Amino acid sequence: MLHIEPTAIPDVKILTPSRFEDGRGFFSEVYNRKRYEEAGVTLDFVQDNHSLSEKAGTIRGLHFQTAPFAQDKLVRVVRGRILDVAVDLRRSSPTFGQHVAVELSAQNWRQLLVPIGFAHGFCTLEPDTEVLYKVTNYYSAAHDRGLAFDDPALGIEWPVDVSQAVLSEKDRKHPRLADLPACFD
Ligand SMILES: Cc1cn([C@H]2C[C@H](O)[C@@H](COP(=O)(O)OP(=O)(O)O[C@H]3O[C@@H](C)C(=O)[C@@H](O)[C@H]3O)O2)c(=O)[nH]c1=O
């Protein structure tokens, strides 16, 4: 079974697969192509990613890849907890510049579907947080782009003091939304 919740931005969805618990632990179909298609999620995933962030208060993002390497992402957490954020970069969208922020954890078992046309990032809320995500296109360093996670125009309420956040060097230098070239119609 797959539970689907809408978010404030219709194409961004929260999907929660069933978890069957017993004396040993649990079993869960974390992705089932047929079931996801029945739920309206018809995507051709080609790569699975896994990251570990050792410290709480690590922010990764906001990232996206441009065409022809744009990616849909299906994000989940197997250890720890994150605030996961998707920012709408589609110029013709009524929600351009707006975002969805959802807590994903190993406990709540939620997955966030971040479609093509969105920048994605997250902040870890616990140490040793592991994030897994499926993507529909291959990594291409040449098409990898970023948006400043702390751009005030985005109004993202990161759950940490952003001046203390653990960041990659790359993530300190991304342009703000107003300076970002149009990447998605
Ligand atoms: C994303 C990615 C990175 N890499 C390499 C490049 C680099 O040497 C190292 C670390 O890359 P990054 O610093 O970009 O990793 P990270 O900051 O974790 O990047 C990820 O952030 C989240 C929020 C996303 O949405 C992802 O799409 C991806 O952009 O891994 C790959 O080989 N394949 C990949 O798919």
Describe the overall structure.
By secondary structure, this protein is mainly beta. It has a single domain (3-179), classed as Jelly Rolls (Sandwich), CATH 2.60.120. Helix content is 3%, strand content 39%. It has 1 helix and 13 strands, in the order ββββαβββββββββ. The strands form 3 sheets. A 6-stranded antiparallel beta sheet has the order 1-2-10-7-12-5, with no helix packed on it. The longest helix has 6 residues, at 33-38. The protein is globular and about 50 Å long. The mean pLDDT is 97.
Primary descriptors:
185 residues; mainly beta; Jelly Rolls; 6-stranded antiparallel sheet; 5-stranded antiparallel sheet; globular; binds dtdp-4-keto-L-rhamnose
Order of helices and strands: EEEEHEEEEEEEEE
The total of beta strands comes to 13
Major sheet, described briefly? 6 strands, antiparallel
Point out poorly predicted stretches.
none
Global morphology: globular
The CATH architecture classification is: Sandwich
Spatial strand sequence of the major β-sheet: 1-2-10-7-12-5
Question: Secondary-structure blueprint of this entry?
Answer:
Layout: E1 2-6, E2 13-17, E3 20-22, E4 25-27, H1 33-38, E5 47-53, E6 59-65, E7 73-79, E8 81-88, E9 99-105, E10 111-114, E11 118-124, E12 129-135, E13 144-146
Antiparallel strand pairs: 1-2, 2-10, 3-4, 5-12, 6-11, 6-13, 7-10, 7-12, 8-9, 8-11
The structure holds dtdp-4-keto-L-rhamnose.
Short description:
The protein is mainly beta and 185 residues long.
